[in-house]
């Protein structure tokens, strides 16, 4: 049998879902993911989301049944003494059928890697057509663009790369790092925990006072580096038109309910795009049905933003609180010593998590130990009156009073719904039963044009009730419940109605289905490893600062081979001891606080009075300087590495070229 020819890459849309562990990865596939990315036992950019190799192999087997793909993250920067372990891990992942490695460290490209497809991590900081084209030409088949890009910038990158050689991947949902990925060193400078090595301390979620150069407070205890969550639900068609083909959901630390819900949400949206675009196709097989209605607002989130896709906007930050307040529930009518009354349209349940903001705009959260429905509101039939008993009593609930708006960030009924089986994924199957020389032949063909047959060779008796016999036969053939298939059509063409024992029909169906699934498995092909362009293409620049994250000599050799003359070591090598940019971000605190000179241009009496002077962030004893580079419209968070961090054993002093050879 000839397997179906692979589709042209630029005609496929891939929904790429995260998995903290293998069970979540399996459910991501079941809920519609075309591919899943997951951490291996080490060297993934989420230190707390590693998985054993044997578990990943179980995920690979499940995904490949639907032609879905598994990508393993190997995307930290590596020390010289870690390279050989990383190489062995890469080979082990390849041997168990993993489809691609997501990498950041260019030193890996200098090793004896298996012929596995390579994807450039978002940590490689891909913002320009030149960088994208370079990564394509050195052998990356898929590149994850920076989250901060606009549609116009994505189109420019697509125009500079070859759709037949390189897939454009873009984040469409989840938490946002405020810094360009791979360009944040605050965590390492303050704690020794490196974001580039998968261990970020999340200083961006802390509250800060913002002061000007005179010490005047511009913002008080605001989370000015905390972003809302990414949500590109409304932009999928535009992203497709711009050249994106892989749509990535953030969340390798997220729980099962999040992955089920968000994957299903974007599966439905992408299917709408595909239905309107017959020139495009899914990147895997099967259709999903759901036992719930996907809703991204039901999961933990900090509010939604489409970030910079449609240009700069002021309202992209979650400045009041870096946590989730939840969905509005209702308002307090009255309080008592141990409970309060709440008016709401929603159904409440014991154990629900509720929140409100106190008078200082601090978010207060508590659990409802018990809820009781009191009555329907007389004035509004949609509203019901509830009594709520907080788990820790009323005394700690500061400023909770009549009129307080209450939200819910844990909905026990929703959580219980997603704890159960909540989706089925099935591949369409066409079945044809015919008479043959040996008896009866059942031929099955699936939606990908794989075929298989099985024969039932035994004598048959004519059916006493032909109509009933055919109905029973169709019913038995359609019983595909324990398989990955669903019967789309059943054709029965027999010379006359025969009485066929149910056990014989079941055995015939099972044999045909086993054979077609075996044919699918036999036809599985690895994604091709892209060959690097020869001779080696030059890197877009001839010098690299610590921002290039070169942390081992193999990475240094890679860049030297591609024409770079000056190569500085990564920030984690502790060679950059003075003030340095610890974070580079497209987010601008001045713009969000309406203090940007560009915002006041042309405003009479204001234009020229506001300048892009530095600001200072203060959190306890921590002080960071904000410097504004207005030409590219970027902000630098500037600081120094702490002395106690310099004493840590993790430091690996490295010195590459400091000056051009022969200078």
Automatic annotation (TrEMBL):
Residue span, Peptidase U32 collagenase domain: 408-520
Alphabetical list of SUPFAM superfamilies matching this protein: FMN-linked oxidoreductases (SSF51395)
PROSITE patterns: PEPTIDASE_U32
Top-rank taxon, per record: Bacteria
Transmembrane intervals: none
Name used for this protein in its record: U32 family peptidase
Phylogenetic classification of the source organism: Bacteria, Pseudomonadati, Pseudomonadota, Betaproteobacteria, Rhodocyclales
